[in-house]
Amino acid sequence: MKRNNLDEAEALFQNAAALHRQAQNVLGEGYDLCNLGKVHIQRDNLDEAEALFQNAAALHRQAQDVLGEGYDLSNLGDVHMRRDNLDKAEAFYQNAAALHRQAQDVLGEGSDLRNLGVVHMKRNHLDEAEQFFEKAASCYREARSILGEANVLCNLGEVHMQRGKLKEAEGMLQNAAALHRQAQDVLGEGNDLCCLGEVCMQQGKLDEAEVLFKNAAALHRQAQNVREEANDLCKLQEVYMERNKVNANVLHEL
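Above: the chain's sequence. Below: its structure in token form.
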């Protein structure tokens, strides 16, 4: 969301919160504060976001809204992930998952389980990460969330890449790309193709890697994600450098 849009969103949510407070609508105010927290997350104002999510959680608890509190705790987990405070993030995601399970919100629980998998990936606990990602995939499948399943299949591909299981990684990433394409998620598909390019690089399939990185760059350009497009172009440069090295070795052997 652009800066001007964020400012407008903040003003609207602040006004809504004031009106809900005036009307003594605890539940409505809780959701307004949660939305304000999301605005501050996008601005990377983590302290302000944390305070708003904590206040939102207190109001949702007061209103006995298990579902709302679950999302507040998940957002607090996101705040601590951005701070790289993995222990606190893990605790919030675990509590959020328990509340979402209690509320029978399969989609919310799937998101929490995926986040727990990411926590364990950052710790390099690959077995635990895989278990959480598989549980998340099951939740997304049950909720019929194509996008959620696609994202978690990409995560599973990354787990297999880190283990050096390139065939398994390739299969997961191909499935993720197909689902992202089905969901018309250009950014997600671009990320999958970039990861597939890395798999091909490790397998020595330089021609395939080149095509994948070019396609990833085109998708990231379409998604207007400059950082990821730049990353794709750097990967392409690595392909060309590796190809030159291979050609030089062949000439040397002749």
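The chain is about 85% helix and 0% strand.
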